[in-house]
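**User:** I keep going back and forth on a fold encoding question. It is easy to fool oneself when nobody else works the same problem. Could you pick a protein and write out its sequence and tokenised fold? Could you put it straight underneath, so I can go through it closely?

**Assistant:**
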Amino acid sequence: MRDLVPIYAGCVSQTQPAKEHHVDFSPYVLNDITQIVTAVGVILTAVSSILNRRSLGRVDKKIDNVAAKADEVKTETIKRVEEVKTQVAEVREAAVAVNAEVIQEVRNGRSNHG
């Protein structure tokens, strides 16, 4: 009796003889699969690159903001340093004047009592 092959899943024919199934593969199947995998890799790389560029754009904006703030702080610091220099000069002038007065008083005191 001939081997029976299912025509439909779960259904066996009593009248159909068994057929040999040959699957012919193109010799280029591996090449085709390689090209598909490579194409998917290229697409994923492009998507990753786009996302990285966006991320770098955000980082660049943050750096620009920090640089602007640093410039503001530098300007304010220079202004404060100039104010401190002015105050130091005023204190120095006052100290010189006080010293001159003390020296004059000491000289006058020696002249009067001496």
Summary: The mean pLDDT is 84. The CA atoms of residues 2 and 53 lie 67 Å apart.
